[in-house]
Design goal:
It is a single chain. By secondary structure, the chain is an alpha+beta fold. It has a domain of about 45 residues. About 30% of the residues lie in helices and about 35% in strands. It is built from two helices and three strands; from the N terminus they run E-E-H-E-H. The protein has a three-stranded antiparallel beta sheet, covered by helices on one side. The protein is elongated and about 60 Å long. The model has no long low-confidence stretch (mean pLDDT about 85).
Length: about 70
């Protein structure tokens, strides 16, 4: 599953380029950047944020399961 990578790379003239791109893994990211004429310097993945707004009640869970079975 692709993830978002924030990268810092260098182009053929030595200029530093920063951006973000979707890739399956770091190797895939390097291939994509190479096709763009860039050499990877540093990268990091976007941190996923999990939000938990409230507790799901037993009744809500039962209703959800029965609705999706139909």
């Amino acid at each position: 599953m692709p993830q978002q990578f924030f990268y810092k790379a260098m182009d053929s003239q030595g200029r530093i380029v920063q951006g973000q791109i979707s890739a399956n893994n770091i190797n895939d990211l390097e291939v994509r950047l190479d096709r763009m004429g860039l050499d990877l310097i540093h990268c990091r993945t976007q941190k996923l944020r999990h939000f938990r707004l409230g507790k799901v009640t037993r009744q809500e869970l039962i209703t959800f399961v029965f609705i999706w079975k139909i």
